[in-house]
Amino acid sequence: MAAETQRTLERLRHHYEVEKELAGRLRKSTREERVSLFATLYGELFERVPDHPRLTRRVTPEDSRRKVAAQMRILAPFLKADSVLLEFAPGDGRLAAAAAAKVKKVIGVDISDQRESADESPANLELVVYDGYNLDVPDRSVDVCFSYQFLEHLHPDDISPHFETARRVLKSGGVYVFDTPHRYTGPHDISAFFTDELECFHFQEWTHREMRKLLKKHGFSTTWVFRFGKPQRGFLMNALVDGLELLMSPVPHKIRRRLCYRLLPAVTLAAVAD
Fold it and tell me: If you write DSSP's letter for every residue of 114-127 in order, what string do you get?
């Protein structure tokens, strides 16, 4: 949140109040209402908060390369030349384009096309624009699903449908690889400056144990934590992470957040489809 600290407390407060208001509107919405709200709320946020970091942050080509490289380190262990990869919320499409060089096909699914130029996309990259719910991708046609810093933005009522969609499109034995902020070090949005509660556009943050339980309900019984730059398939490392969370669970939030800042910054998992 380095970009946030360059703004005055007054401007941070303004951003927080606006985003909290908009998030409240989204929290109260029905599924049908969210289809249209998704397309308008961020536009309203950026209009009312013109100094939002998404608008003011200067991203250099080197910044983009580093971001893509970091995501590829998570994803690469599961990619093969004949793989079909589906990325949820690919944004500018840079990761999808990089992954396209390593797989048979990449499908990016998003509520809008945010690429700078679709003409520059690789031939084996397809972008599917959908309403956030009804995804026209055949059952059991995908080897790997991927999302990065996405799940926390989903409405609580949309979490289960999302994992059901991922399970539907994945082949048996396929893998959903994702990264989402860890609850013990949150909130990870603008809320963090004013409260310990999630009040803005991060609707949920999880621990590894909470996420494993959720995944198991939706047909992902096997999960592997990422440590030391790679997925840990053995029992010991996964048990150690769960044990660390149990140890930290009773610690007061502010102390726990400081202690876990480097140990548990995110929940990064590979979930295997049953």
Answer: --S-GGGS-TTEEE
